[in-house]
Design goal:
This protein is α/β, with parallel strands linked by helices. The chain is built from 34 helices and 25 strands. The structure holds N-[(cyclohexylcarbonyl)carbamoyl]-beta-D-glucopyranosylamine. This is Alpha-1,4 glucan phosphorylase.
Length: 840
């Protein structure tokens, strides 16, 4: 083809695209207005912002349906091997923006609503975020289902449709106050109820033995109570593919027949109570983070969603005419921590008691089906259920667990002859003192694969938390370092950066984040670096405006934005950052003219409602802000803002505006962290300990582009073994002494020295998370941060390198590893069915 005809071809193609685009745009506008009329029953002059949001949501949902049906059809006809991701939490965040991006119609939608005098961002903020998770673990599940869809892997996410998600946090006089999260108040346009696939879930009662027609001894579970599980499905669209997988969340309802029985006997109030008790099951998400609640309702929730999901898988097998013996060939079932680990016993019950398989066959299927991901090194977070409680709720499962345990310990006894201590540690039942069922042990025994979520974490599992299981079956263990989805955490959250990168590299990086390496060759391009700085400056100005509106604190967008957002916990050490702020404040008070890089400290995060020390940490931060922000000596060089109600939505405003990412947990405590990755992608530099995935981030970006400080894990262990005396650190460091004394004096509490006494006492006496040991190292490292920040050009180059080298931390990489190393699943590309295909 000569160049002129190639040019004509190009031209025709371009015209074709622009014609299609304008058609798309007209169609989008038509269906937006139709939905406003037919779904919301409003015409533009009467419509509220929420009406417009819902009209747009339905417009997008209509476009998802064809992909969703085509995906279901492809999986059903091909009987595809399917990942089932079992998680008590899915912290999805708002759907509309993400779906617009994945459909590739974000910009068109912005134009359409713009022409009607509306602002797309404004409409996006109307969506109540489904906050069905506490933090990292729930958000990881959300990133994973995004990546599974984008990689075209057949997958179902199974969880609970909590009526109340994670509480809404407000602050009153600097103290956290919790408000219920009524996220379903205005309806949820993204879900479809599927009552036709409801299942029955049994609770309590007793078991009976009987002989079947082949004279075999069998067990029947006679339950005291039955609850219905109704699935609510949400389509999860991949990025620029036809795949739309399903997130299936279960709602608990009272079975009709049950109410009526009592109603007919005249016990109307009893019937209603029964209904309320049943519906309580999926009422509320437990807000505990890294601390086991041990509540009966929580065990009921876990069993409820796991039994619903496993029964649903059996239904799918039946539809596809796959024999139950091939369960493990059809499904790879992943346990997101131990919350769904009762599934091991429940699958055994379904296979043995209901499908009538032999025990050994059932056990083989079970072990081949399950994989178990551990997310914590904190001993207090390891789930155990007291035996009497477990027996009351799940009598049949306790019998099954005893049988699993007896067979398992028989093997262990042969392998480790005479090692009774080891046998006691491996047992599924804790026998010293009050007896407990150990859920991590159940998960380990019933799974063919066990993984940690960062290199260090997996090593510590092998050496410590799960040492006995590692010594028994080393081949089951592997590492899968966490990742996050670049679609939400760059494309949606940071449109300015997205445009800059796409103009520089094309848009391939959105599906293949390793391509960001291409940015490295631009760090000497002055124009590029300048644009990079302008992007960050604009994001910071946006966040400054937001903070000023919310908190009435003025913020200088040219100050260093030093950010720590995550759940509030002593091991995450937000109070170490607070000590640093006070140290800087003391320097200013001692020498008001001291030269100092202006910093804005931004905090966000929720404390578990019953975790008093975490709540006191929030109070400390806000109290320091109340003094520092208004002390005239400070002259704006320090600002402290605690942004209430940290959530996915707020995260999307915060990560893109950060200069410095605080990842300062005690070494050996944070399993991985995922916020660290979101900051890095968005071009923040990290100040961090050698903990969790920080280590891998430093490996990727290079030591010279990372601010490292603090004790290493073996050093923490050594200090612990030696007998750590925090008082000595206090006495040795004048700066630390000044800070502790100032807080202890009540200076930040209007002279009331009792307010922060519990916190100061813990630090001086026990300091279980080594704040005082790490204080000097942290402050010195922060001084280096300030020194580097003065050189804006150097900082920008380091920031660009951080982004450029963040490819490893895409959840696409993580999911590829799960697919090939644990699940053994392949992608199944989906062909879009036409209207006629669908109707045929
Ligand atoms: C988190 N765990 C880890 N648990 O702390 C974090 O290091 C890791 O990056 C993340 O998992 C993902 O792997 C976590 O978020 C919880 O929220 C549980 C909720 C239910 C009760 C126990 C804690």
């Amino acid at each position: 083809m000569d160049s002129s005809s190639a040019g004509q071809e190009d031209d025709r193609e371009r015209r074709g695209i622009s014609e299609r685009a304008s058609l798309d745009k007209r169609a989008l506008r038509r269906s937006f207005l139709d939905n406003l009329l037919y779904v919301q029953g409003k015409f533009p002059r009467l419509a509220t912002k929420n009406d417009y949001y819902l009209a747009l949501a339905h417009t997008v949902r209509d476009r998802l349906m064809q992909r969703w049906i085509s995906t279901a059809a492809a999986y059903t006809t091909q009987c595809s091997r399917t990942v089932c991701y079992l998680s008590a939490e899915f912290l999805m965040g708002p759907h509309l923006g993400n779906n617009l991006i994945n459909l590739g119609i974000y910009d068109v939608a912005a134009e359409v609503v713009g022409e009607l005098g509306l602002d797309l961002e404004d409409l996006l903020y109307q969506e109540e975020e489904p906050g069905l998770g506490n933090g990292g673990l729930g958000r990881l599940a959300a990133c994973f289902i995004d990546s599974l869809a984008t990689l075209e892997v057949p997958a179902l996410g199974y969880g609970i449709r909590y009526e109340y998600g994670i509480f809404h946090q407000t602050l009153s006089d600097g103290w956290q106050v919790e408000k219920t999260d009524k996220w379903l108040r205005f309806g949820n346009p993204w879900e479809l109820a599927r009552p036709e696939w409801a299942v029955e879930i049994k609770f309590g009662g007793h078991t009976e033995q009987y002989t079947d027609e082949h004279q075999r001894l069998r067990v029947r579970w006679v339950a005291a109570r039955i609850v219905n599980g109704v699935p609510y499905d949400t389509p999860i669209l991949g990025y620029h593919v036809n795949t739309a997988n399903t997130l299936r969340l279960w709602k608990a309802e009272a079975p009709e027949s049950f109410d009526f029985g009592q109603f007919n006997r005249g016990d109307y109030a009893g019937a209603v109570t029964q209904k309320i008790v049943s519906e309580n099951l999926s009422k509320v998400l437990y807000p505990n983070d890294e601390q086991e609640a041990g509540k009966e309702l929580r065990l009921q929730q876990q069993f409820f969603f796991v039994s619903c999901s496993l029964q649903d898988m059996l239904r799918i097998l039946q539809i596809q005419r796959i024999p139950v013996e091939k369960f493990h060939e059809k499904f790879a079932v992943q346990l997101n921590d131990t919350h769904p680990s009762i599934g091991v016993a429940e699958l055994m019950r379904l296979l043995v008691d209901e499908q009538l398989l032999a025990w050994d066959t059932a056990w083989d299927i079970t072990c081949k089906s399950f994989g178990y991901t551990n997310h914590t090194l904190m001993p207090e977070a390891l789930e155990r259920w007291s035996l009497p409680l477990f027996q009351r709720v799940l009598p049949r499962h306790l019998e099954i667990i005893y049988e699993i345990n007896a067979r398992f310990l028989d093997q262990v006894r042969i392998r480790f002859f005479g090692d009774e201590a080891r046998i006691a540690r491996l047992s599924l039942i804790e026998e010293q003192g009050p007896r407990y069922v150990r859920m991590a042990n159940l998960a380990c025994v019933g799974s063919h694969a066990i993984n940690g979520v960062a290199d260090l974490h997996t090593e510590l599992l092998k050496q410590d938390v799960l040492k006995d299981f590692y010594e028994l079956c080393p081949e089951k263990f592997s590492n899968k370092t966490n990742g996050v989805t670049p679609r939400r955490w760059i494309v949606l959250a940071n449109p300015r950066l997205t445009s800059l990168i796409t103009e520089t590299l094309g848009d391939g990086w959105i599906r293949d984040l390793d391509l960001l390496r291409g940015l490295e060759s631009h760090i000497d391009d002055a124009a590029f670096v300048q644009r990079w700085q302008a992007v960050k400056r604009a994001n910071k100005a946006d966040l400054a405006t937001h903070i000023e509106r919310r908190l009435q604190i003025s913020i200088d967008p040219d100050s260093l934005f030093d950010v720590q957002v995550k759940r509030i916990h002593e091991y995450k050490r937000q109070h170490l950052a607070a000590l640093h702020i006070v140290a800087l404040y003391c320097r200013i008070k001692a020498n008001p003219n001291i030269e100092m890089v202006p910093r804005t400290f931004i905090f966000g995060g929720k404390a578990a409602p019953g975790y008093h020390m975490a709540k006191l940490m929030i109070k400390l931060i806000t109290a320091i802000g109340d003094v520092v922000n208004f002390d005239p000596d400070v002259r704006g060089r320090l600002k402290v803002a605690f942004l209430p109600n940290f959530s996915v939505t707020n995260g999307q405003r915060i990560y893109p505006a950060a200069d410095l990412s605080e990842q300062i947990s005690t070494a050996g405590k944070e399993a991985s962290g995922t916020g660290n990755m979101k900051f890095q992608m968005n071009g923040a530099l990290t100040i961090g300990t050698m903990d969790g995935a920080n280590i891998e981030i430093m490996e990727e970006v290079g030591k010279e582009n990372f601010f490292q400080f603090g004790l290493l894990t073996p050093e923490v262990y050594a200090w612990q073994a030696r007998g750590y005396r925090p008082q000595e650190c206090y006495e040795r460091s004048p700066a630390l002494r000044e800070v502790i004394d100032l807080i202890g004096s009540g200076y930040f509490a209007r002279g009331d020295s009792s307010v922060f006494k519990p916190l100061i006492d813990v630090l001086l006496r026990y300091d279980p998370y080594f704040l005082l040991a790490d204080f000097d190292s942290y402050v010195a490292c922060q001084d280096e941060v300030s020194a580097v920040y003065k050189d804006k050009h150097r900082w920008a180059r380091m920031a660009i390198l951080n982004s450029a080298r963040s490819g490893k931390f895409s959840s696409d990489r993580t999911i590829r590893q799960y697919c090939s190393e644990i699940w053994n699943v392949d992608k199944v590309p989906v062909r879009l069915l036409s209207q006629e295909d669908v109707e045929a």
